[in-house]
Amino acid sequence: VQLQASGGGLVQPGGSLRLSCAAPPFTLDYYAIGWFRQAPGKAREGVSCISLSDDSKTYVDSVKGRFTISRDKSKNTVYLQMTSLKPEDTAVYYCATAKLLSRWHCAIQPSADFGSWGQGTQVTVSS
Hints:
Layout: E1 4-6, E2 9-11, E3 17-22, H1 27-30, E4 32-38, E5 45-50, E6 57-59, E7 67-72, E8 77-82, E9 91-102, E10 105-110, E11 121-125
Parallel strand pairs: 2-11
Antiparallel strand pairs: 1-3, 3-8, 4-5, 4-9, 5-6, 7-8, 9-10, 9-11
């Protein structure tokens, strides 16, 4: 399943951005969706995922309390609201289908049938 991330940009420390992940129709009925990021010179890391239940969300420790993942099935879109941004959040952000552990739990890892990363969207946090 090919997903497309958008919404990145340049923001000052402490600022906010909302990223969007567009998915093909009905994808959110069957797949958990994850956000991942890759900073220059670093390995790609998982940031957050949302399972088939809207209440089931997982975050990496470094973004807990600052980032919120959500989804709108009517728009086939998953969002990542990012607040209190820090320079260390600077990275290319990607979305992808995530590993589904159950209807209520996902792991911030690409799913077994994950295809490719796509272009991602650049987030730069700098004054």
